[in-house]
Amino acid sequence: MSGAKQNMYQTKENGTIQSLPYDKFLQQGAEGLTEEELIAIILRTGTRGEDALTLACRVLSVCDKRQGILGLHHVTLDQLMQVKGIGLVKAVKLKAIAELSRRMAVARVEKDAVFRNPQIVAQAYMERLRHLEKEHCIALYLDTKDSRIKDVELSIGNINSSIMSARELFRQALLCNATSVIIMHNHPSGDPTPSREDLLLTERLRQAASVMEIPLLDHIIIGDNTYISLKEKGVL
User: Fold this and answer.
1) Is the pTM of this model over 0.90?
2) Is the predicted pLDDT of residue 168 greater than 80, yes or no?
């Protein structure tokens, strides 16, 4: 084996030959790499007596306690730094990658998308809401063409509940001259099934919307890569 090729492989303790993640990326592209190998490329180096790939496996073992690779959205810098070989710089890189992946998923939805059905709304806000550990209530304000004017985070609740103010909801609508509004919030449990409180809130806001003559088009509850539209359920 030539010197150039030797740099592309490593010999493991059991004698097997393994392609290094960086060179495997060049040979096969990103699609050919495992999650561990991709993380190893980000980490670049391991620690004494341990290569980057082994370190990446230990990072994922921490994430596995929090939904596998998606756990990178939930683990804190301190939790990552408890992994031997992960200092502040590596921990920040990993959290930055998680945030980039979230933003890229959000960016797939066109900025000027027409929000005429619940699926489009859910796709646009799924990655923003599905990983949160508290309930966040967001209002989406639309113009006459059902295009987004803006969205506003109206409240952050505890892990079980949230409070949305009808006064603030429609104050914001008047400020931006919205002709309709959609509200949405996440369920940290991952199950989007509406609670009794969700249904009561929806009815209260529907009545206020009727008085304000700014239609409440939908109330969408975001779960873990799933959603429920109260409009589709016949509540609105």
Assistant:
1) no
2) yes
